[in-house]
Amino acid sequence: MAFAPFLIPLTALLLSLALFGVFVSLAGADALAVYHSIYRGAFGTWFSWQNTLVSAAPLMLTALCTALPARLGLIVIGGEGAMVLGGLAAALTGLVLIDANAWLALTGMALAAMLAGGLLIGLVGWLRHSRNVNETISSLLFNYISIAILSFLVIGMLRDPETLNKPSTHHIGETHMLGALGETSIHWGFAYGVIACVILWLLYKRTTFGFAVDMIGGNVRAARLSGLSVGRNIFLVCLMGGAAAGLAGMVEVAAVHGRANTSLNAGYGYEGILIAFAARHHPLAIIPMAILFGGIRAASGLMQRDHDLPDATGLVLQGMIFILLLASEAVFARLALNKGFKA
Amino acid sequence: MNGEESQWLTVLIAVLGGAIRVGTPFLFVSLGECLTEKSGRINLGLEGNLIMGAMAGYGVAWITGSAWLGVLAAGATGVVLGFVHALLCQQPRVNDIAVGIALMILGTGLAFFIGKPLIQPTAPHLPALHLGAWSDNPALRAALEINALFIVGVLLAPAMAWFFRSSRWGLAIRTVGESDDAARAMGLNVNLVRMLATMAGGFLAGVGGAFLSLYYPGGWSEGLSSGQGLMAVALVIFARWDPMRCLYASLLFGGAGALGPSLQAVGVTSGYYLFNAAPYVLTLILMIAASSTKVRSGMPGSLAAR
Is residue B102 classed as helix, strand or coil in its secondary structure? Predict the structure, then answer.
């Protein structure tokens, strides 16, 4: 079953596209035309490719927030909250450093965002280890709390009075925005995402730290008996996952909006959970999965306009993919069990 | 009575009334989750059941003109989602938390998709009992408008406690929740018991959703639920898997959820968003306080084993 890591997501994807086709047909749209719109909006032209990669940038980073702790057997779904706090911290730092040079300001923003997101998810890990607080629930609660803090601050004391329709912080300054890669419209956030995935893959694959993490994920008692500090490793892994999601917030602020506002809370964190599972929590596999889902995100506007479908269409497709992904994992596991060897 | 004092009294009454109104969906979802978890499985997808229930309940009530048929339809969608959850979870190597998240996304998406044409029309509301008719304080009268579903929920909690304690089926669910092996030794079909418990739990969560759209806040919109289905999972842990404690905890959460709007009603608006976060902060504090590194009392054995 060496092909299982590729075969499972592929099967699930094809099945869910078929199911989605049936669904939109029932809703009165032409399924083939909908597929064509998705393809055109996601990968059909260089213009749509650029949109896809721009959407994929934060998705890679939020997926890491779920994928890294998953190696320890923890299911953290706090990417949305870490991203929101990261974006808020980045905007604040950007405003403090508004007179500094651009390089210093961007570095400061990135570090502040990673620290904010990292501490949030680090706290989730620490609570899990020291108080046995379920990490899934606590990270979810932190999502809501983070969004409340963001709304409170951008509507209150941090609000730029000129932002009427969407209350936001002041602008971090056009010269301090994260630039594009060469002549494209793809910003540097995409490179951040790819680099983060590669570095974390190397860390897991090639270092004793990665070995320790796999050992704790495999058998906590054995890890403890061989002298590993379980609590410290849980905290560090969660810290890194949260830092990645925090950086996603910085990317959205510094490359897209220029301000922190409730646009930070656009579901990237929740989509990251799905991507992490689709990539089977493998940091390198996150890159193509994030591009795929970034494509669906980029195409959803076109799909809705061309076929008069509701906004939630993309969400339905995501839900179908997630369900069928888990179902295909189960079917493959069954086949493997029947054949008498492990998947 | 001076103005300042009566203002705080208004807030207090509004919070008490809110505890009942806002707490009712919590009550149904947490009882549903309690039933599912007693059988040894966590269903994080009840948020999806809640939103689907709210949509289906509203739609059916609007088409048929009967709010109670809406409640039944909401429960039925919950049963279907519970069935999917149970079917996936009983497969090898499938994590129940992941299935829950997937069903939450799918349920929310489907509800928003199908419910799009339901934003405009007005469906009949569920009836309420005016228990405050004796008082001439309008705030108190409003607070004591008790919905019939709340009363059903209040009766359901002790009934479920009795069911777990004294009935054959309750014993079967507890045994399955405690240990797969013990249950098999008793001749119970573990997967079947868990599936029935998840479907029944899904029914209750769907009914909780119907309360949202057919009574309070009322109407169908995409912002109707704000994570009540997920918070119910935390609530069950806090309630230590005891239906009666689920009832008390739901009222507490309802009160916390009503704090922001109640303060806004008397003109305290500055911290509106922070007060809205009160239930989440409360959940977190309670979870930290209620948990320890030891296995919690009342926790089903197969949940503690992982």
Answer: helix
In a domain, A158, yes or no: yes
Q: How many domains does chain A have?
A: 1
Residue range A190-216, pLDDT digits in tens:
999 999 999 999 999 999 999 999 999
Residue ranges of A 117-136 with Cβ closer than 8 A to chain B: 127, 130-134, 136
Is the pLDDT score of A343 beyond 50?
Answer: no
Chain A residue with CA closest to B84: the answer is A323
Q: How far is CA B143 from CA B132, B133, B250, in A?
A: 8, 11, 17
Q: What pLDDT does residue B290 have?
A: 74
Return the CATH number at A292: 1.10.3470
Rounded to whole angstroms, what are the CA distances from B20 to A109, B12, B128, B256, B294? 45, 13, 12, 11, 33
Q: Which residue range forms the structural domain that includes residue A106?
A: 51-175+187-330
User: How far is it, in rounded angstroms, from Cα B39 to Cα B197?
Assistant: 7
Q: State pLDDT tens for residues B114-161.
A: 999 998 888 888 888 888 778 787 778 877 888 899 999 999 999 999
- What is the value of ipTM here, to two decimals? 0.89
Q: What is the pLDDT of residue A252?
A: 96
Interchain CB distance below 8 Å, A316 and B110? yes
A1 pLDDT higher than 70: no
Closest Cβ opposite residue B277 in set A144, A311, A343: A144
Which amino acid type is present at position B134? W
Q: Does B83 lie at the interface with A, CB-CB under 8 angstroms?
A: no
In chain B the domains, ranked by start, together with CATH numbers, are 27-127+136-304 (1.10.3470)
| pLDDT the model gives residue A2 | 61
* Type of residue numbered A195: I
Give one DSSP letter per residue of B103-130, joined into a string: HHHHHHHHHHHHTGGGSSS-PPPPPEEE
Residue with tokens 């998240």: B101
Encode pLDDT of A121-166 as tens digits: 999 999 999 988 889 889 989 998 999 999 999 988 888 988 888 8
Note which residues in 64-83 of chain A have CB less than 8 A from chain B.
75, 77
Residue B223, pLDDT score: 86
Of the residues B93, B235, B241, B263, the best mutation for testing chain A's interface (the one with the most A CB atoms within 10 Å of its CB) is: B93
Q: Does residue A93 sit within a domain?
A: yes
* Any domain includes A202: yes
Does a structural domain hold residue A18? no
